[in-house]
Amino acid sequence: MLRRFEVHRPTTVAEAIALRAQFGDDGAIYAGGTELLLAMKLGVARYAHLIDVKHIPALRGVSLQQGVVRIGATVTHWDLERDATIAKALPAFAALERNVANVRVRAAGTLAGNLAFAEPHADPPALLMALGARVHVEGAKGRRAIPIAEFVVGMYQTSLGPDEIVTAIEIQLPDAGRRAAYVKFQILERPSVGVAIVGAVQGGRFGDAPAVVVGAVDEMPRRVDTKSLAGATLRDAATADALATAARAAVEPVADLAGDVDYKRHLVGVFARRALAALAEAA
Ligand SMILES: Cc1cc2nc3c(=O)[nH]c(=O)nc-3n(C[C@H](O)[C@H](O)[C@H](O)COP(=O)(O)OP(=O)(O)OC[C@H]3O[C@@H](n4cnc5c(N)ncnc54)[C@H](O)[C@@H]3O)c2cc1C
Question: Cβ(191) to ligand 1 under 6 A?
Fold first, then answer.
């Protein structure tokens, strides 16, 4: 059962930061509420004050300027899957967003909330990390831009300071010729494994070492060592074997309802191969 709480509706980022500082551990930022209200209902989180950021105009919208896509902190998964800029500039990310959760969660849940909650069984962090995305945050001491790899630091843990809020996520568009793909396996509400790959492809070969990140099996997304794949042919069994081996070595799976450690490591190898095939198809 939900305990009583008070909702505050700031209309500027500065106001939200001040409220965050004022309430400390007794307050939380409230966006779509899809994780927060569930956690409060289950009694695993207790807050007397919720700071609803949905009324802050500066946190809205998707824009593209000078090759950088900016996604405001109150943009939902539903907004992202239908956004024309995302569909054109980052089709792999649009496809990922179409397959997050269910339509009810996508309609209310935000990308910023997904990242800030740092639930390990998540889709966006792996692809965003492979794309080199950064989380923009603002607090009493000013603004910082944090690479995803440094933002998600553990299960339900981020590097967000106690008085900071996420204002936006920014993604530098990949150079021409660089392609991206994301594949996942899911039997429960959330993914059991997700593999993202971003690589420059010329004449069926990798121009350099692709960025490969495995998500959802571990405490946080893990980058795969792909140095040996620079120049490798995409549609080649040896390339697929090398990637699958490197991906399995990169993770320390956590056993849970989705499977045990060996099973999850096996899945990582299978889905690393599928990610490579998807990239070859996209190229
Ligand atoms: C049934 C179900 C299925 C799901 N399936 C998937 C799935 O398949 N793949 C997947 O990736 N995810 C999945 N999710 C997670 C989903 O993506 C998140 O619930 C959603 O994105 C959270 O966003 P929100 O706006 O509702 O966050 P909220 O619930 O409002 O907040 C979540 C947390 O983030 C903090 N927060 C929110 N916004 C900010 C901000 N701007 N600054 C600082 N802190 C902030 C809050 O304080 C809170 O701690 C699923 C969730 C549910 C409930």
Answer: yes
